[in-house]
């Protein structure tokens, strides 16, 4: 990502242009590339707020994502420029909400997301209140997506299943699978002919567990009844012990 960084009150802006390796076989921005942009901007902003990964690790703390709700209205193409804004929104008990908006050169929103994070004590492995441990910092109550993170259904009867082995490149600084990898696995489960014709319009994720290097995960997907564009639910589990790692719901568009 070729980025220029600016600071704004209660928010953070990155400007980027879509590189070739961040685009798909049609020259459009990959969903996973966009989520990596989100992750990079959130990390940079947290660092400026004094709550970045390095600072937190010194305090035996870390951020872990709990929920994600993403909407994709349009996919920029190779070399298009865009602006990404992210901001901390609200505290809800043990959860801290962070919002994202991505705009194109005309200023139109082509993607938006809301996310929910927990601050984890590395010694006890338990969540702690962010406001209590990090102190006060400026919040912007604006929501990029108005979502209450409704419960996502489990897969009752899988239409498709696909296995993935956790690679070293799937790990984050906490040494478990990065949250973007779960979404990438789910999207990759669809057949190639389906992926030629469709791309995600909306992605909801409920992260429920952790996977580590060398483990094998199984992604199970089921189609939901729909009068229009297809919608699928996904369940990612560990192959070894069937422990649930994530649930997703993806609405697709042509």
* Helix and strand element order: EEHHEEEEEHEHHEEEE
Radius of gyration from the alpha-carbon trace, in angstroms: 18 Å
Query: Which overall shape is indicated by the principal axes computed on the Cα atoms?
Result: globular
Task: Report the total helices.
Answer: 5
Number of domains: 2
**Overall strand count:** 12
Residue fraction in strands: 35-45%
The CATH H-level homologous superfamily of the largest domain: Hotdog Thioesterase
* Structural classification: alpha+beta
**What is the averaged pLDDT score?**
93
Outline:
The chain is of the alpha+beta class and 254 residues long.
How would you sum up this structure, described in words?
The chain has helices at 31-48, 53-58, 130-134, 179-188, 192-197; strands spanning 2-8, 11-17, 61-72, 81-92, 95-104, 109-121, 126-128, 160-165, 199-207, 216-224, 231-238, 244-253. A hairpin with a 2-residue loop joins strand 4 and strand 5 (95-104). Strands 1, 2, 3, 4, 5, 6, 7, 8, 9, 10, 11 and 12 form a twelve-stranded antiparallel beta sheet that branches. It starts with a strand and ends with a strand. Helices cover 18% and strands 42% of the residues. Helix 1 packs antiparallel against helix 4 (179-188). It has two domains: 2-134, Roll (Thiol Ester Dehydrase, Chain A); 160-253, Roll (Thiol Ester Dehydrase, Chain A). The protein has five helices and twelve strands. It is globular, with a radius of gyration of 18 Å. With 254 residues, it is of the alpha+beta class.
């Amino acid at each position: 990502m070729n980025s220029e960084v600016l600071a704004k009150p209660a928010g953070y802006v990155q400007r980027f242009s879509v590189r070739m390796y961040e685009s798909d076989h049609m020259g459009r921005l990959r969903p996973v590339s966009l989520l990596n942009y989100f992750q990079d901007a959130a990390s940079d902003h947290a660092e400026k707020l004094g709550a970045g990964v390095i600072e937190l690790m010194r305090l035996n703390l870390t951020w872990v994502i709990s929920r994600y709700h993403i909407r994709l209205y349009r996919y920029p193409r190779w070399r298009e420029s865009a602006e990404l804004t992210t901001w901390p929104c609200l505290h809800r008990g043990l959860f801290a909400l962070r919002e994202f908006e991505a705009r194109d050169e005309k200023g139109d929103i082509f993607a938006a997301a809301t996310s929910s994070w927990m601050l984890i004590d590395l010694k006890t492995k338990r969540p702690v209140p962010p406001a209590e441990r990090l102190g006060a910092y400026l919040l912007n109550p604006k929501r990029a997506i108005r979502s209450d993170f409704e419960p996502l259904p489990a897969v009752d009867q899988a239409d498709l299943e696909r296995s993935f082995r956790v690679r070293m490149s799937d790990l984050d600084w906490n040494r478990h699978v990065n949250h973007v990898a779960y979404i990438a696995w789910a999207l990759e489960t669809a057949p190639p002919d389906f992926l030629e014709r469709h791309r995600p319009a909306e992605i909801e994720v409920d992260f429920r567990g952790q996977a580590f290097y060398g483990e094998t995960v199984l992604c199970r997907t089921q189609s939901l009844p729909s009068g229009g564009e297809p919608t699928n639910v996904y369940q990612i589990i560990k192959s070894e012990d069937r422990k649930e790692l994530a649930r997703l719901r993806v609405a697709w568009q042509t």
